[in-house]
């Protein structure tokens, strides 16, 4: 009986952790604009497990190189890509599915959102070089 209770409690905690990590991803989005939460970098997703997603609104034109910390590195090494942000348009969503150890490069407009969803069984991150 005690064991069952402990197992149920553990399950409850696991569910709480999963729920919280979903929220933290959202709060990253909220603070990600303008480089918050990433040690001054434009965006840092944290770990994205299977099915997890992260999104970021690009409020400033520029060229944003980014990478996965487990399969790439800053400077375009390995699992990496570039988001190029040009003049203002209608705010649009660009959703990408990660299906292997590559990351998309794309050109978007200021105030557009990019969303990455990890559809592999491995853990990845998306984080800007700067
Ligand atoms: Cu990766």
Descriptive notes:
- By secondary structure, the chain is α/β, with parallel strands linked by helices.
- It has one domain (2-128).
- Helix content is 24%, strand content 37%.
- The protein has 1 helix and 7 strands, in the order αβββββββ.
- The strands form 2 sheets. Strands 5-3-2-7 form a 4-stranded mixed sheet, with no helix packed on it. Strands 1-6-4 form a 3-stranded mixed sheet.
- Strand 2 (62-73) and strand 3 (77-88) form a beta hairpin.
- The radius of gyration is 17 Å and the shape is globular.
- Residues 4-37 have low confidence and may be disordered.
- The structure holds copper (II) ion.
- Copper (II) ion is lined by residues 68, 70-71, 79, 101, 124.
Helix tally equals 1
Overall shape: globular
| Strand segment count | 7
Number of domains: 1
Main beta-sheet strand count, sense and barrel state: 4 strands, mixed
Secondary-structure element order, N to C: HEEEEEEE
Poorly predicted spans = 4-37
């Amino acid at each position: 009986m005690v064991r069952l209770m402990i197992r149920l409690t553990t399950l409850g905690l696991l569910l709480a952790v999963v729920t919280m990590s979903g929220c933290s991803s959202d709060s990253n989005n909220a603070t990600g604009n303008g480089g918050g939460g990433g040690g001054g970098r434009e965006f840092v997703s944290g770990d994205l497990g299977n099915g997890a997603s992260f999104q970021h609104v690009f409020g400033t034109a520029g060229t944003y190189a980014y990478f996965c910390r487990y399969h790439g590195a800053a400077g375009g090494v390995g699992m990496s890509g570039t988001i190029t942000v040009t003049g203002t348009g209608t705010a649009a969503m660009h959703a990408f599915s990660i299906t292997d150890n590559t990351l998309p490069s794309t050109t978007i407009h200021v105030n557009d959102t990019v969303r990455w969803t990890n559809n592999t069984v491995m853990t990845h991150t998306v984080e800007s070089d700067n």
